[in-house]
Amino acid sequence: MGQHELKNEFLSITVNDFGAELSAIVSTQTGQSYLWNADETYWKRHSPVLFPIVGSLKGKSFHYNGKDYPMSQHGFARDMEFECIEVTETSIKHRLTSTPETMKQYPFSFCLDITYQLSGNTIQVIWDVTNTDTKEMHFSIGAHPAFNCPLAQGEKQSDYYLQFDTTNPLSIRKINEDGLVKEGDTKLPIDGSLLSIHEHLFDDDALIIEDNQAHSVALLTPSKKPYVTVNFDAPLFGLWSPAKKDAPFVCIEPWYGRCDSETYADTLENRVWGNHCKPGETFHSSYTITIDDI
After folding, report:
1. How many CA atoms lie within 13 A of 74 on its CB side?
2. 268 φ/ψ angles, rounded to the nearest 5 degrees
3. 112: part of which helix (H) or strand (E)?
4. What is the pTM of this model?
5. How many domains would you assign to the chain?
6. Residue 237 is part of a domain; what is its CATH number?
7. CA-based nearest residue to 180, from 257, 274, 261, 253
8. What is the DSSP string of 180-240?
9. Cβ–Cβ under 8 Å, residues 48 and 144
10. Predicted confidence (pLDDT) per residue in 160-218, tens digit
């Protein structure tokens, strides 16, 4: 598995060819690590890309053009070798293209480019999904970065906070044991713009926040100082840490798409929050990770 590094006076980042996955964010000044180390005790990944679906499918398959296509949670891109096509002093670009094997799971020809750009204390992650097929393409794409929380030994995650760019209570959706969205929503009360990461916050697994309720989420230390901020244009996002495991990280996940609902009974092209590209079109989006405490 190949790896590539970008480094400046603030940060060093590492990107793997496998999954085009960001695998390290480290302060070049203090040596502090901000990205989860993929210890399998809790979770074996750092920051996988979710494509061509986000989350789980009802019945673990989708229906398209009269046929069912089995696919595992979050799609196949995270478990494939990408080609590194460009490395500069400030960017790394990877590419994944459809193959006969991917076509068995997902009947579309595509090109997925993922670019990481490092500027100061900010990492921009850019997605370009191009439809290279002759028919309209339907897909989802999302991020899943896991950030260390707590940062220091002797601290507790329950002393940390999440901060949003809103002071309104957040309407959240929860998922069941099959990874499907439950019916109805609940309110997540926030104090000002802050949410305490209490020990039971993720007891029911991921929290899903839809409908453009927020576009910036930060992790704060016990002294309420931001140290990681994720900014995005995506219409929804997830918050996750493994349920009831006391795992020392929190994921902040911008999504263009999500898992099916418990009652979903429709086709791929009608999935909620799905995206659609005509032949030759490119879907372009990005999000940023800013390390605030350096």
Report:
1. 16
2. -55, -45
3. strand 110-119
4. 0.97
5. 1
6. 2.70.98.10
7. 261
8. -BPSS-EEE--BTTEEE--TTTTTTS-EEE-TTS-SEEEEE-TT--EEEEEEE--SEEEEE
9. yes
10. 999 999 999 999 999 999 999 999 999 998 999 999 999 899 998 999 999 999 999 99
